[in-house]
From TrEMBL:
<keyword id="KW-1003">Cell membrane</keyword>
<feature type="transmembrane region" description="Helical">
    <location>
        <begin position="12"/>
        <end position="36"/>
    </location>
</feature>
<dbReference type="InterPro" id="IPR035906">
    <property type="entry name" value="MetI-like_sf"/>
</dbReference>
<feature type="transmembrane region" description="Helical">
    <location>
        <begin position="261"/>
        <end position="280"/>
    </location>
</feature>
<feature type="transmembrane region" description="Helical">
    <location>
        <begin position="153"/>
        <end position="175"/>
    </location>
</feature>
<dbReference type="GO" id="GO:0005886">
    <property type="term" value="C:plasma membrane"/>
</dbReference>
<comment type="function">
    <text>Part of the ABC transporter complex UgpBAEC involved in sn-glycerol-3-phosphate (G3P) import. Probably responsible for the translocation of the substrate across the membrane.</text>
</comment>
<feature type="transmembrane region" description="Helical">
    <location>
        <begin position="75"/>
        <end position="94"/>
    </location>
</feature>
<keyword id="KW-0813">Transport</keyword>
<feature type="transmembrane region" description="Helical">
    <location>
        <begin position="106"/>
        <end position="127"/>
    </location>
</feature>
<feature type="transmembrane region" description="Helical">
    <location>
        <begin position="212"/>
        <end position="233"/>
    </location>
</feature>
<keyword id="KW-1133">Transmembrane helix</keyword>
<dbReference type="InterPro" id="IPR000515">
    <property type="entry name" value="MetI-like"/>
</dbReference>
<keyword id="KW-0812">Transmembrane</keyword>
<dbReference type="Pfam" id="PF00528">
    <property type="entry name" value="BPD_transp_1"/>
</dbReference>
<keyword id="KW-0997">Cell inner membrane</keyword>
<protein>
    <submittedName>
        <fullName>Sugar ABC transporter permease</fullName>
    </submittedName>
</protein>
Length: 291
């Protein structure tokens, strides 16, 4: 009995130590290494030499990097409303299902664990000028769209692909929020003759606010980290309209052989995404009181 008590007593310490070890190895140490590397000149070989803030000056003067950052904001303008609406509709539909919830949920979740290379190649064929999507549009409506060759539509195409990947994952998060809403609240709203739209904006969305914030944070994080889809589907084109910071960072590190410069870019990306997430959370975070 003493052994069991002793073991239970140390469970929290063991779990905390495991988490701290994971955080230190995979987050804290890499960030410190990036911070040090950003202050040096290094080309994968030899000893890094200290060069102060020179890398930060070079990054601030790099037009392609800042264009890629603006591209992320454009991507967010497409991606956030599409993925939020699609995820909520999926969660709402899943909640209404009486049978097969597990099967449907897992089916949509498979997209999230699929190979990025595989589905990017598939979608590049779907969105190509003579692909099945344009074939459908031409057969039924008499026109085609330059999905991957137009600077205006290329980023939308990437946003649709990334939405396909994450809609199941985000939808399950929102589904858990919808299931946590007490049914008595909806019953009371029905007795008060509350309309569907009013119920949505005054009950449902406020009650799943924590899940909405979580999805928003994940979506913003994904937006700054996308690489595979634009790199394989459009190659960052046309006219660098789908070039993302990750693509610029990759090419800087491994094609221009400037890992120190790329490390500095990663710091800019991390700070920008963190700042946007904090600002959005402050705007959306509020207490929901049920009277």
């Amino acid at each position: 009995m003493t052994f069991l008590k002793l073991k239970d007593k140390h469970v929290g310490s063991i779990l905390a130590a495991s988490y701290l070890g994971y955080t230190s190895i995979f987050w804290f140490y890499p960030f410190i290494w990036l911070a040090v590397l950003s202050l040096t000149e290094w080309r994968f070989v030899g000893t890094p030499t200290f060069n102060g803030l020179n890398n930060f000056i070079l990054v601030m003067q790099d037009p392609l990097f800042w264009k890629s950052m603006l591209n992320v904001l454009r991507f967010l303008m497409y991606y956030l409303p599409i993925v939020f609406i699609a995820s909520f509709l999926f969660a709402f539909g899943l909640q209404k299902l009486k049978y097969g919830r597990t099967f449907v949920g897992l089916s949509f979740l498979l997209a999230n664990v699929s190979s990025g290379v595989a589905y990017s190649i598939v979608f590049s064929k779907i969105f190509s000028q003579d692909g099945p999507l344009n074939t459908f549009l031409y057969d039924w409506f008499g026109f085609t769209l330059p999905w991957l060759t137009s600077p205006d539509l290329a980023m939308l195409s990437i946003a649709l692909v990334v939405t396909w990947k994450f809609v199941g994952y985000y939808g399950l998060i929102l589904f858990s929020g919808l299931n946590s809403i007490p049914k008595e609240i909806y019953s009371a709203a029905t007795l008060d003759n509350t309309g569907t739209i009013k119920r949505l904006f005054h009950i449902t969305l406020p009650m799943i606010n924590p899940q909405l914030i979580m999805v928003l944070v994940l979506a913003i994080t994904v937006s700054f980290a996308i690489f595979t889809e634009p790199y394989l589907i459009t190659g960052g084109g046309p006219l660098n309209s789908t070039t993302t910071p990750m693509i610029v960072m990759y090419e800087t590190a491994f094609m221009k052989m400037q890992p120190s410069w790329a490390a500095t870019m990663s710091i800019f990306i991390a700070l920008t995404s963190f700042g946007i997430i904090l600002a959005v959370r402050k705007l959306l975070e509020r207490k929901v009181e049920i009277v």
